[in-house]
Design a protein that fits this description.
This protein has 566 residues and is of the alpha/beta class. Helices cover 55% and strands 10% of the residues. A 4-stranded parallel beta sheet has the order 5-4-9-10, with helices on both faces. Strands 1-3-2 form a 3-stranded antiparallel beta sheet, covered by helices on one side. Strands 6-7-8 form a 3-stranded antiparallel beta sheet. The protein is flat and about 80 Å long. The two termini are 32 Å apart.
Amino acid sequence: MIDTIKREIKNNLEKYYKDKYNVDLQIVVEEPKKKELGDISIPMFVVVKTLRKPMPEIVNEGLEALKSFDLPISDLGAVGAFINLFVDKSKISKNIIKMAIENDSNYGKSEVGLGKNVTLDYSSPNIAKSFSIGHLRSTMIGNSLKLILEKCGYNTYSINYLGDWGTQFGKMIVAYKLWGDLDKIKADPINELTALYVRFHKEAVDKPELEDEAREAFRKMELKDPEYLDLWKWIREESLKESQQIYDLLDIKFDSFNGEAFYNDKMDPVVEELEAKGLLVEDDGAKIVNLGDDMPPALIKRSDGGSLYITRDLAAVFYRKKEYKFDKILYVVGNEQKLHFEQLKRLITKMGYDFADQVNHVNFGLYLTNGKKASTRSGNVVKLYDVLMTAINLAKAQIEEKNPNLANKEEIAKNVGIAAIVFADLKNFRGLDIEFNINDAVKFEGQTGPYLQYTGVRIASILRGKEFDYNNINTDLFEKPHYFELAKLVSDFRATIERAANEFAPSVIAKYLLTLASSFNKFYSLEKINVEDEVTRNTNFALAKAVRVVLNEGLRLLGIKYLEEM
């Protein structure tokens, strides 16, 4: 609601100056840094700069213009170059609550993406390796962005671009042939294959010739050697079974599992196009494209004819543009791949295509354990399934202690444990590294997923079995700061979602939900909710219900289940 008022102010003022002075201005409408100054603030610097009039004259004219608009404003004034407005708290608070309750899960829905397509590339684990805690970031950031963008009206297509091709499979095959025990591998495929991969890298330190053998083994795969391809297919199937176990736990679905191998037959046309456009250059037997003095060249083909990531990603982006007709494509990939995506965008442009600006690298930092990056090669891996199971067990122990008679404890513990792990990731700005601490994540208080779930459960408990009329409320109560603060936060939901979508940052919603929950718990400590006076009781219940609507939907957008009990 307040966001709507801001837009109306912006539109009305811009129209006013256009009609009177025939100038196109971009009026900024924001919130004052100090709450006591007002609810909305308009800096007038851009008007002074354009009209070249003294600031006092511009401010006075702006005040008169605002008074002529039909807006729910109770008072307005100016401090220096800023016009500050107080909204009619009583009037707009009732409308905010009514909209939230009546729209329920549709509340906050935006239309900024209507008619536009977004393709998201995320999760993308390497097959034949355990699904580690390090994969959580891409998986959950990508899943949340998909949900956020859908809430904004976009059509989304989610792709799990599996790491199912490359030299690492040559390494796996060499290790399997040298040290593999087929019976052990069949009994425990991923753990045994991961152990072989770790052993390969340890052995290669003293026997560098193993790397050459691995490259040769992968070359045979690319030449479609039946023995090697059959082994690869089996490894891929077993890996997908393990990954699906994780996706089922997290309730994540994809539209496509087309991995790197899917593009094997789609790279040659791209290479031929690069050649035809005079972009390919030979360099020590390899094929490269020069991208300018400010960027290293893109290596398109190795001297032995082997393909590279950039070639495959180039084939993939052209395929996806044709298949999904995207207006944006998001690659939810780590910070360390920044150069790779800059090269990809430069290649698209050099080839004469105009959609490079639609390619977005949604970067994220590392998950650290004891200050170190997880690495399959060194065996320093924390398996995500183990982490989730540990979190679920910790959650169950807390539930047993706080609410031993709770029905359906297993399912609730699962949802609380998963919420703990997911929120511990998404509350952080994605570009930062995270030091993982499972015990802190599962706490029922503090900045955690379980805290948000618990706040929602508290509200559900307050409202359970209660009837109230949200049209018959005491609007004067919203003159109290803790009442209006809550109503205002509820009204900020759509703007928060749009900002998260624009910045590709689920943390925007996570931080907002923490503020909302904190504000409600403050309200709960100051007010008795279920009072005797019917109209006051209606007001309290309606406000709590509106908060619950936003908490539930906000958690859903983060990929977290909301609960009725815990």
